[in-house]
Amino acid sequence: MVARSRNRGAIMIEDKLKEDMKSAMKSGDKLRLGVIRMLLSELKNTQLAKGEKLVDADEEKVLSSYAKKRKESIEKYVEGGRQDLADKEKAEYDITLSYLPERLGEGELRDVIRKHIDAIGGGRQSFGQVMKAVLAEVGGRAEGKTVSTLVKEMLQ
Fold first, then answer.
1. Distance from C-alpha of 101 to C-alpha of 109, rounded to nearest angstrom
2. Co-location of 88 and 137 in the same domain
3. What is the pLDDT of residues 100-142, one digit of tens each?
4. What is the DSSP secondary structure assignment for residue 100, as one 8-state letter?
5. 30 vs 3, 108, 155, CA distance in Å?
6. What's the number of CA atoms in the CB half-sphere (13 Å) around residue 24?
């Protein structure tokens, strides 16, 4: 959905968020507007902390982190019997995901992991190296927890 690099004339996540914020204001979509404002705030705070302009990978990392927090909140609310709050978090999670690159399916992720296991070598001692290589390749297209589970499974 979101293109890769400003250098190639593509739209960065921040630019897309600003465009969509205008649309959400015009349409009166308060939930989307609130999420977009929060995402823009997260990006701005990260930029200020970093002290320089964010690149695509930085923006994806910030949004992935925000999505991960939403997912954790959903689990906690469901455990606590607060389905109403879980539903609200789920809506925010879905909106956030719409700005991230499409997630890899399990089959595609297994292929990437297999490629790196073959290149690095199997065995439990190579877990860290395989994780680092896989996460570097897939970036925000897979959750670290999912990658970790699959790598452990495939190394055994």
1. 14
2. no
3. 888 888 888 888 888 888 888 777 788 888 888 888 888 777 8
4. S
5. 26, 36, 46
6. 16
Residue 50 placed within a domain = yes
Q: For helices 106-120 and 144-155, what crossing angle results, to 10°?
A: 60
The Cα-based distances of 54 to 4, 34, 81, 82, 124 in angstroms read: 13, 22, 39, 36, 36
> What is the value of pTM for the model shown?
0.73
Q: Contact, 151 vs 130, CB < 8 A?
A: yes
Q: Rounded distance, CA 88 to CA 91, Å?
A: 5
Q: Is residue 29 a part of any domain in this protein?
A: yes
Does one domain contain both 93 and 123? no
Query: Domain limits at 131?
Result: 106-155
